[in-house]
Structure formats: structure tokens, C-alpha cells
């Protein structure tokens, strides 16, 4: 990996870093391994890195706001990598995004093989159509999260019957669902896939790496509600689970406990938290119903106060990330400007005080001069020649 200057590129995997960033230094040896393996495998993806502090204009153009940032540049598109910082995960992302947005499933054997490898499988069935164009647009945007496929109707299992073609079919939990045409308009908000929908989103926030009884229970409850209450909530809700609370914390600008349940309204950036711990299916259903009927307390929103809070939160997060990675550099970057500003303010206040003292002294001299003139005039009037007192 070498420092690069981006110009006209087709497939380029870029690691944006800052020399002072501790996380960047930890990722650097892994990034070298990624570059070596992609090169040895004959991948068309070219791997490089860029000092975002030296090329701040280019980094800003690609929306780099923190470090480290990994982006795969594919033509005119820039895909953010937000997965685990391991070699295998980073390479898998590159292979997925570098390939076609929609992959073909030519046979039943291939379909069965892919179905076993994916928890959720999206398949377009049919020929050329406006729906296929929308499907490709969405696949191009959301390929950072999952794979998208196409197949002919005879490739699907015999149990799958489609009322009409073309269609988009989603296979999940041993069943399948047919999406209507309105479900596949591109969202263009570049967020987590759960949040790329217009519905309310009920999420179990858990820790996948350190599973405990409560995390497993909440995950199972969310899955049960999604399955057993599909007819009741399907029109208004999307259900899922999320590993860790970092993304949710940054979204709501607050701390969410792990494990816990949260409902997000992505249309107005409001969120809802249960007032009591969710221990049973009935409690979870009651909480979701309270959100649906408007009795649950809403937090957040997209008002002017929340926007100002977002600006302050982003600034604070940036400062804290700098101090966590390099405390000495943080003190230099932020302490030096504050020190200069303090000296300037002190100088201005001191100068103003000195001017005030000079003015006061000047007024004293003027007043003293006036008093002396008045004293002379009074003496002259009292002792002028020709008067009895003056003889």
C-alpha cells in the first residue's frame, strides 16, 4: 500500500487515515494484508491509502468525517465500509461490492447453495421491466449490506408460486414474501439497511459477540413478534436486531443500554423507549402498540433544537475521538487555539483598561487647569487696583 492521489479510478479501495490516529495505526498492518491478498487473488480492486489531513480537499469531497474511513470507489459511486476491522470482513466487502449489483442464479442447485449461505435472500424473477430497473438501482445502493440475485421462475422451488411476473421475492426463515412495486424506490439516505425503509423500525440492540440470556431473549422476542404478529404490524413496522449500540447512540445522540429494545421513526428522527423492562412477548407487543396508537413518549425529532444539538454532538464526538487516540496531539490542536484566543481577549481588555486610565488622567489634568483659571480670575476680581481692599 502506498499513499495515492485519487484521479480517474474505476475500482479503488481507499483507507483514509490521519497520522495521529491510534485506530488508524492499528488498522494499517491489516490493510497491508488486505492489499496483498486482493492482489494475489487477481482481484480488479486496487488498494491504497491516503493521508486525509494532507489531502483534506479530496477527503472532504468523498465525505470523510472521521478516521479511519474505508471507501470502495466504483465508477462514480463511493461505498462506505462500516463492518468489522478484520482482514476477512474487509476483503469480503470488496469482493461483494466490486462484483455486479445483481448476480444471476442459473440453476436450482446454485439457488439452494446460495439460500443456505444467506439469512435473507433477495431474488428478482422475470424479464426486462421498470421493476427490474428499480431493483438494480436499489441493489447498487444497498450492496454494501447484502447480495442481490436474479433467476428465472423454474429455478425457484416448486413450492414458490408467484401470482404475476415480474416480481421481487425475499426468502427468510424458511418462508418467502413477495414485495410490491412501491417497496423498491431507492432511499438515498446511506444509512443502516434497517433504517432505509419508510416504516417504523423496532430493533433489539444486543451484543452478538458476548451473547447472554437477556440478549438471546430479546432477539427471540423480536423475531416472534415479526412472525406471529405479521398481519397486525406488517403494514407499519419493520423488525430486526443490531449488534452493539454505537450506531444507535450516534443516531439518537444518547446512550442506549445493551441489551434493550428501541423503536425508530426514520421519517422525523423520533425514537421510543419502553418505560419498563421488556421480559415477555405481551410486554413487547404492548410497547409496540403504544407507539402505534401514540401513547408512548416520543424523544428526539428533527426540530431546530435537535439540529443544533446534532452539530454540537458531532463536534464533541470529533474532539473526543482525537483525545482518545492521541491526548497530547489533542491538547496541542485544541489547547493552542484556545490559548491564543485567551491571550487576544486579555490583550483587548488590558488595552481598553489602559485607554480608560489615560482618559481619566486626561480629564483630571483638564479639570485641574480649569480650577486654576477660576482661582486666578477670582483672585484678580478680589484684589484689582483702585479698590479699598487693594490699596
From TrEMBL:
<dbReference type="GO" id="GO:0003756">
    <property type="term" value="F:protein disulfide isomerase activity"/>
</dbReference>
<dbReference type="GO" id="GO:0009986">
    <property type="term" value="C:cell surface"/>
</dbReference>
<keyword id="KW-1133">Transmembrane helix</keyword>
<keyword id="KW-0472">Membrane</keyword>
<feature type="domain" description="Thioredoxin">
    <location>
        <begin position="1"/>
        <end position="99"/>
    </location>
</feature>
<dbReference type="Pfam" id="PF13848">
    <property type="entry name" value="Thioredoxin_6"/>
</dbReference>
<protein>
    <recommendedName>
        <fullName>protein disulfide-isomerase</fullName>
        <ecNumber>5.3.4.1</ecNumber>
    </recommendedName>
</protein>
<dbReference type="GO" id="GO:0005783">
    <property type="term" value="C:endoplasmic reticulum"/>
</dbReference>
<dbReference type="InterPro" id="IPR052250">
    <property type="entry name" value="PDI_TMX3"/>
</dbReference>
<feature type="transmembrane region" description="Helical">
    <location>
        <begin position="327"/>
        <end position="346"/>
    </location>
</feature>
<dbReference type="InterPro" id="IPR036249">
    <property type="entry name" value="Thioredoxin-like_sf"/>
</dbReference>
<dbReference type="InterPro" id="IPR013766">
    <property type="entry name" value="Thioredoxin_domain"/>
</dbReference>
<dbReference type="GO" id="GO:0016020">
    <property type="term" value="C:membrane"/>
</dbReference>
<dbReference type="Pfam" id="PF00085">
    <property type="entry name" value="Thioredoxin"/>
</dbReference>
<keyword id="KW-0812">Transmembrane</keyword>
